[in-house]
Amino acid sequence: MNEALVASAPPTTPPFTAKEGRAVVKSLQGTYPTIYPVVLRFTSEGWDSILDWGETRLAKRKGKKVFLISINSTLCHAGQFMVLVHEYAHALAWPATDKQADAEKFHHSPEWGIAEARLWALVGDEKPQGRAF
Ligand SMILES: [Zn+2]
Q1: How far is the CA of 54 from the centre of ligand 1 (A)?
Q2: Is residue 93 exposed (0-12), middle (13-18) or buried (19+ Cβ within 10 Å)?
Q3: CA 129 to centroid of ligand 1, rounded, Å
């Protein structure tokens, strides 16, 4: 990824709506389900800089564990999609120890890389600017 994906570059497609983002997650879950449900949010708050594009954390919703994937809402559509695939790979490759600290320790592990490659093999044939992905 490069800085061209940041919002300062004129977007050719509007950023994802929350509904569109959830549809992408639902589609990914159909082929590559995660051990906990994924809750997706687009937000411009909580980032240290505009180069912070997304994160995946364990969280609780209604007393149950979920993967909370946050995407920087200031990114353009293509940037948001790339970050979503990247972050979803973190959820797929979540360490068996189930600890946030271990997930950070093995942040971009070979397992994560394989998970991301699988996701790109799945979505790579989609039109880059398509609204489904
Ligand atoms: Zn990452």
Answers
A1: 8
A2: buried
A3: 23
